[in-house]
From TrEMBL:
Protein name per Swiss-Prot or TrEMBL: ABC transporter ATP-binding protein
Location within or outside the cell: Cell membrane
CDD domains: ABC_6TM_MsbA_like (cd18552)
Record bears the keyword Transmembrane: yes
Membrane topology: Multi-pass membrane protein
């Protein structure tokens, strides 16, 4: 995460004052979306207890509107957050690209003799594009998923602290494997960026020297040379996919074990009238919803290492 802090310090902090109103709107949208997600899980309790068990007619007339309201909060909040986060990120990257080219144009010719043109193009397009995904997509989405997780965790603990402990006790077991996966992804990402630069440089050299290649009948030689580099890039990408997808089965297995224990213990509590049906299903809904943002957070963490 050290590299991420460097990116944040160098790219976001110098510009943040220019985007204060947009930051405020993005944060508002994030909080609104998280509140809607958490409230939707909590509403399962009054829907079951008041409407289907207590047969409360007044609740039947009011709760459907509450459901519409919380899902509207969730959707509108996400829209506001995504739009203004993208606006901030895209505009910062526009300014970074302009500044990068301005810096390059001010350098001596000796600099351009040391670096291939394809590598410089790759830096301006691909590397800056990776940074764009951090600023405009990954960091805002990470913040939203963390807030959703905290809200749902609050619902889970509120409904039953005992069941919450049973369901979440296995979560620390995934921390070490996730850290190992993240470190490996970071190394693969660096190699992938270097290979992207090599391929871009290779294509630039081919097209810039196409007359010489044609004159020497070297088309087959250049094609085979490029194909070897392209195959290395393909294998590198497949290693990245294989490594990044290890998190899903890990999270699914631990989540299923926790849910199974919750159903056994919670079922006994409902049967013995220690917990209402609505409370149990509200807990269960929040728990199942909680695994989605947790999985998303691990996925974003891997993508941050990659970027």
């Amino acid at each position: 995460m050290k590299d991420l802090k460097v990116v944040f310090r160098r790219l976001v902090l110098p510009y943040w004052k220019d985007y204060i109103p947009y930051f405020a709107l993005a944060i508002f949208g994030t909080v609104l979306s998280a509140a809607g997600a958490s409230a939707s899980a909590y509403l399962v309790k009054p829907v079951l207890d008041k409407i289907f068990i207590a047969k409360d007619v007044q609740a039947l007339h009011l709760l459907p509107y509450a459901i519409i309201l919380v899902y509207a909060m969730k959707g509108v909040g996400k829209y506001i957050q995504v739009y203004y986060s993208a606006l901030i990120g895209q505009d910062i990257i526009r300014r970074v690209r302009n500044r990068m080219l301005e810096t390059l144009l001010s350098l001596d010719l000796s600099f351009f003799h040391r670096f291939r043109s394809g590598e410089l193009i790759s830096r301006n397009i691909n590397d800056v594009g990776q940074i764009r995904s951090i600023v405009s997509t990954l960091l805002p989405e990470l913040a939203r998923q963390v807030l959703i997780s905290l809200g749902l965790l609050g619902v889970v603990i509120y409904q039953s602290p005992k069941l919450a402990f049973i369901a979440l006790v296995g979560m620390p077991l995934v921390v070490l494997p996730l850290r190992i996966i993240a470190k490996k992804l970071k190394k693969l990402s660096h190699r992938s960026q270097e290979k992207t630069s090599d391929i871009t440089s290779r294509l630039t050299e081919i097209f810039n020297n196409i007359e010489v290649i044609k004159a020497r009948n070297a088309e087959q030689y250049e094609h085979e040379k490029f194909a070897r580099e392209n195959m290395e890039y393909f294998r590198l990408n497949m290693k990245t996919v294989k490594t990044s997808q290890l998190t899903d089965p890990l999270m699914e297995t631990i989540g299923a074990a926790g849910a199974a224990l919750v159903i056994i213990v919670g079922g006994h509590q409902v049967i013995n009238d220690q917990m209402t049906v609505g409370s149990f299903f509200s807990f269960l809904t929040a728990l199942f919803m909680l695994y989605t943002p947790i999985k998303r957070i691990t996925s974003i963490y891997n993508q941050l290492q990659n970027a």
